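Justification of computing resources. Each target in the renewal requires a structure prediction run like the one illustrated here; the chain below, 308 residues long, is used simply to show the kind of job we budget for.
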Amino acid sequence: MKPTELRNLAIGAVLTVVAIAFPWIADGYWLSIATTAMMYIALSTSWALFSGPTHLIALSTGAFFGVGGYLVGTGMSDYDQTFWTMAIMAPVVAAFLALLIGLVTLRLSGVYFVIFTLGLAEMIRNLVSWVQNNFLGSRGLYVLTDFTEEHIYWMLLAVAVVVFLVGWWINRSRLGFALRILGNDEEVARHVGINTAWSKVVLFVTTGFFAALVGAIVAPRYSYIEPNVVFSPELSFMVVIMALLGGVHRLWGPLVGVVPFTLVWEAITISFPSSTTLLLGLTFLLIVYFIPNGLVGLVETIMRRVRK
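Resulting structure tokens:
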């Protein structure tokens, strides 16, 4: 292992210890913000595992997040299952769903893939609402547990750490090498014998698995969930914006985007509650236009110019 990798692992270990201790020193307000940030760290980092090397903008995070949350709600409310049983089942089901979707859609590229993934979340949300209204007699589900905000925060932290370790392992594996070639030129990757479709499917399934796991863990935080809450398209856009703001060319890039954006978004939702969608779209345009490689890419560019 290279010295830089050992240094990065040591920094990651220190940050993890600090993150574990945070609930003991923070009040309820800051713990709530930290829990939200931890949710987005896990989601945006797992999103970047797929969209970073493939350059495909997937807006399907809300779909898998919703599948995770809604399966937990359905199992606990309608079938008397425990939270832990459903939290194990939900990401497995979502991963299988991602596998089916990936096999069918990852031959699409560019704007066609973006439109499909956006429509996927809407299709699942409307399907769940239709089933609820026509067969189950109610629109929402209760997810009642004994978990506190600290418990949910620590579970999300554990997921985020696992996502980082999986990403670190992928970067060092043959799959990571194949994805780097695929990201630079898919035709070249095919010519050197890389199964590009299967490589993308593996990462798409990984992203779906973690998004559903996060949705399952966050479900008790809502207590009462509806399709419009857990299948929100806004969540998919938030994940993309945070990842792009930090930068998707480094594993830790999304982390750089999540923390400041969560704080700024908290201030925006308090000050301009009726304009959040407009400001979200404006933020996306500004990031794509002015810092396409994210804050990490911007800092690295400045450092290279200074060294010359």
